[in-house]
Each structure stands twice: as structure tokens, then as C-alpha cells.
Amino acid sequence: MPYSDVDVKVYDYDVAKARQLLDFAGWKLTAGKAIREKQGKPLSLLLSYNINNAGEKEIAELLQADFKEIGVELRILGEEKQAYLDRQKSGDFDLQYSLSWGKPYDPASYISSFRVPTHADYQAQKGLRNKPEINLIIGELLITPDETLRKKLYVNLWKTLAEQAVYIPLTYARTKAVFSNELKGVGFNQSQYEIPFERMYFSSK
């Protein structure tokens, strides 16, 4: 992916460190309770997902188990796609999946959506103190004709988001195809949304 080979801060999977940070933030695990509390309020988060996506449900359940291990309740909510999208627009979530479009649209299309209030990425970032700065960086890199400056701005953007820990990288999705062995020339373009039928043909028997 263009402009993505950047050395950013990586957060290792460290259960002990996670517990330590929660303790330091005042979220204490009292005797006899499985969920941490602060001033009598339980540490509970909501993760919503598209109920028609089996992969998202499976990942949500794995995350739920990991969060429970450190004393955090992760409530997972499967919703019909439109309800899920409406929740993205309103920002009524603590965690939600974020998917990019892939080549040839990204990273420009993906980061452009960061400035649109109806996107989950905007809602996830709007509480950041430097959100105005992030928007300015995006606006400038999308219009600058200077390749050197564009690369510099992308590095700044990725490092800023990594430092704020807005995103938890999970997985790469693969595009799959099921076809008869008589059909030849099956493959993919850069974009998963464009199927190159013009290259496919049936072999003669």
C-alpha cells in the first residue's frame, strides 16, 4: 500500500501491562468481582458488528474473552446492516470495526473519510484533542502536488494515530472465488470490487 511503510509505535500483547495501566487509571478490581470499577461504575464497553458477517462475530467473541481476562466487560451487539451503519453515524459505540477499501483507492479514500461525520472513523477520532490537526494534515496531503511533502504528511498522520492508539490492527481480509475447473483465467484486479470477466473463458472439452 502506498505511503504505508512507516515505523510507528507498536503495542505488544501484554496482559500484565494492561492490568497495570487500568489500575493506574483508577479502574480497580475488587475482591469477589470479575469486572473493574471506578467510583462505583463498572468498566463496560460496547462493540457492535454486522450480524450477517460471521467473521466479525467470531473476532468479537475472541476480543470479549481477552477483555474479560483483564477485568473489562465487552458487550457485543450484532445488528442488521442498516442499524449497524446508523450506529456508525451517531457514534453510539465504544468499539467498532473499520474496514478500508484497498487498492487502488487507499490510502487516500480511507483517510478522506476520517473528516466525514457520518463515518465511524470520524466518530472514533472526534474526542482526540488533536483532531483539528489531524483534519488539517489530511486536507493538505490530499491536495498537495509535492510527492515529498505528501510522504512526510502521511508519516505524520500514521504516527499521530498510532500514538493515540485509536485503532487496533486485527487482520487482512482475503477475497475468495469458487469456480468450475473448466473455467480458465480466473483472477483478481487490484480492486476487489472489479471482477475481470474479460480474462475468463471456458476450456474446450
UniProtKB/TrEMBL annotation:
Single GO MF annotation: peptide transmembrane transporter activity
GO BP terms: namely: peptide transport
GO cellular component term of the entry, any: outer membrane-bounded periplasmic space
Residues forming the Solute-binding protein family domain are 3-119
- Name the source's superkingdom: Bacteria
Pfam families of this UniProt entry? SBP_bac_5
- Full protein name: Nickel-binding periplasmic protein
Tell me the organism. Answer: Aggregatibacter aphrophilus
